[in-house]
Write a sequence for this structure.
């Protein structure tokens, strides 16, 4: 069971991974500094598989792909938010970090709640509070990128088919 | 059916008669761009996917800007990936340190981006080129890798918001003040996933460098693009500069906007954003007494020649306050050279400023002016998030170059009108 780390609106890429660490693309190295400017306790107390829950505009700010990479590198498989900043959202899809838009979950889940995501049912279950929240579905085009294993998998396929120069 | 500026550009370049917001389009790109932070990851992805050549060596720009000259061993190692790739692929628009500067100032200035272009760049401030009338937006490294290989990308057609500015601008009210005021009105996600169109008599009269500043901070409201339609002023800017033919687009009369704002600028003062969001903006009269440890004049937002001229006009013959330090970084080599020729650099050095080679440097807490615990900085850059410029307990205020220069002299946030009592409009 995953524990939720709950934060507010506008969690920006500078607090997800400060720029001073953008000297590597290594997920583990980046993960060691994930959210350190926002909540130093997160790095001390998180467990593998815990999830991050934000409010509006999660991931606003820079285009650094290091932000979703750092979250993945910290052992967090998904982020749940009321809404996502568009570059962060696109980067997360591209690198295979799961992102779930769910205003109900962002409102209902509190710090430390036990939560479970069921993609098949497009729902998030809050075991602590006995609540169920709907996930806003991805557009079919984006679903296809996710299903094919990310944007680079799509590129490999296109290169093999000779579709790209 | 009537289309907004963003819809017209995406429809035309996707070879569609029309597009609707929400629709996905696959579009060829005129230019793709990466910098020393984002390109190394993109290059590794590109090579790992088995791509061998970029789609067009003349349409990829690789610019060293953020951590150059290398701030430490790891950043030096990252730049080596970029140097090798640029050489192997014979990238035409490759600018290592000492030759270019900050990409978002450099590419318009050298005519590498032109009006009507579709551009993606692995840097969130790629939206700057909207000031020329380009559809330009930031993406991450993986999108850059895909576009470097294929020359294409995908977009969800954004809804559009229209901002019409009218009235006469007062002294020291620049593009920076207009965009900070706009972000205050709509919030940090007020344009999330949307296109912003900037229009009206104020924009028609607004110098190109100010238009670029406005479009630059579109992302601070969550916007995908922020576009000023190409007009005579744009085309005069392009003369002797554009390296490729341009395209001119106009929004159709009767196009549908999801929100429309009419903004009277006649009473607007110079603006200051308080920590730690750009939307926490106030007029300079409402700032109160705020002492400042460091002033930074530079960045892709306000490191252009007009910004340095404004700052130098205030600093000429004066000294930086003894309790404050001033850092001035011309955004590009061309800005630096022009500032040298005009004697601006001498003004800054005589005033006691640190002047550096072109780099993003302190804007993102990289180097050349990182903040310590509890320090306060007034910066002409674009973001004031927690920890953006250094320690998480440091504070960043955002403003234009005139407020920055006045603040450097007084050591506290200062209205530049104190230095020139005439309230004439610019």
């Amino acid at each position: 069971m995953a524990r939720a780390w709950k934060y507010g609106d506008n969690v920006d890429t500078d607090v997800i991974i400060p720029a001073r660490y953008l000297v590597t693309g290594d997920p583990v190295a980046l993960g060691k500094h994930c959210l350190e400017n926002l909540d130093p306790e997160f790095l001390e107390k998180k467990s593998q598989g815990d999830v991050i829950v934000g409010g509006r505009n999660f991931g606003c700010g820079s285009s650094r792909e290091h932000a979703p990479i750092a979250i993945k590198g910290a052992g967090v498989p998904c982020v749940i938010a009321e809404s996502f900043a568009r570059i962060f959202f696109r980067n997360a899809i591209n690198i295979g970090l799961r992102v779930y838009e769910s205003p109900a979950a962002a409102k209902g889940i509190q710090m430390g709640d036990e939560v479970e995501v069921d993609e098949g049912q497009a729902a998030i279950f809050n075991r602590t509070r006995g609540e169920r929240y709907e996930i806003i579905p991805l557009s079919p085009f984006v679903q296809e990128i996710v299903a094919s294993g990310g944007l680079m998998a799509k590129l490999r396929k296109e290169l093999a088919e000779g579709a790209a120069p | 059916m009537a289309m907004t500026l963003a819809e017209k550009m995406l429809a035309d370049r996707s070879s569609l008669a029309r597009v609707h917001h929400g629709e996905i389009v696959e579009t060829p790109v005129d230019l793709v761009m990466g910098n020393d932070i984002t390109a190394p990851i993109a290059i590794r992805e590109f090579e790992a996917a088995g791509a061998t050549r970029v789609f067009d060596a003349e349409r990829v720009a690789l610019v060293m800007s953020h951590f150059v000259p290398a701030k430490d061993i790891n950043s030096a190692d990252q730049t080596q990936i970029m140097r090798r790739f640029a050489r192997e692929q014979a990238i035409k628009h490759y600018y290592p340190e000492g030759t270019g500067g900050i990409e978002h100032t450099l590419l318009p200035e050298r005519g590498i981006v032109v009006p009507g272009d579709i551009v993606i760049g692995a840097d969130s401030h790629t939206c700057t080129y909207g000031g020329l009338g380009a559809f330009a937006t930031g993406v991450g490294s993986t999108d850059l890798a895909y576009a470097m290989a294929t020359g294409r990308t995908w977009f969800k057609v954004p809804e559009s918001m229209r901002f019409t500015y009218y009235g006469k601008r007062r002294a020291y009210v620049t593009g920076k003040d207009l965009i900070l005021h706009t972000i205050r009105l709509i919030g940090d996600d007020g344009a999330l996933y949307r296109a912003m169109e900037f229009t009206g008599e104020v924009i028609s009269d607004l110098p190109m460098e100010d238009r670029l500043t406005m479009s630059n901070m579109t992302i601070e409201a969550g916007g995908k693009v922020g576009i000023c339609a190409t007009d005579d002023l744009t085309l005069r800017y392009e003369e002797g500069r554009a390296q490729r033919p341009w395209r001119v687009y106009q929004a159709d009369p009767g196009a549908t906007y999801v929100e429309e704002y009419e903004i009277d600028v006649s009473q607007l003062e110079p603006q200051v954003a308080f920590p730690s969001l750009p939307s926490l903006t106030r007029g300079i009269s409402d700032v109160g007494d705020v002492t400042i440890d460091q002033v930074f004049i530079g960045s892709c937002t306000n490191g252009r020649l007009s910004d340095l001229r404004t700052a130098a006009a205030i600093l000429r013959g004066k000294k930086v306050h003894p309790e404050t330090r001033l850092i001035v970084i011309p955004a590009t080599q061309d800005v630096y050279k022009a500032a040298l020729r005009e004697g601006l650099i001498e003004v800054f050095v005589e005033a006691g400023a640190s002047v550096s080679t072109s780099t993003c440097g302190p804007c993102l807490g990289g180097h050349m002016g990182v903040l310590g615990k509890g320090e306060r900085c007034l910066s002409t850059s674009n973001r004031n998030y927690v920890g953006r410029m250094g320690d998480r307990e440091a504070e960043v205020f955002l403003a234009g170059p005139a407020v920055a220069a006045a603040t450097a002299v007084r050591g506290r946030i200062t209205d530049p009108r104190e230095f020139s009592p005439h309230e004439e409009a610019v």
Observations:
- Chain A is about 35% helix and 20% strand.
- Chain A has one domain: 2-137.
- Residues 94 and 150 of chain A are 5 Å apart (CA to CA).
- Residues 2-137 of chain A form a domain with the Aconitase; domain 4 fold (CATH 3.20.19.10).
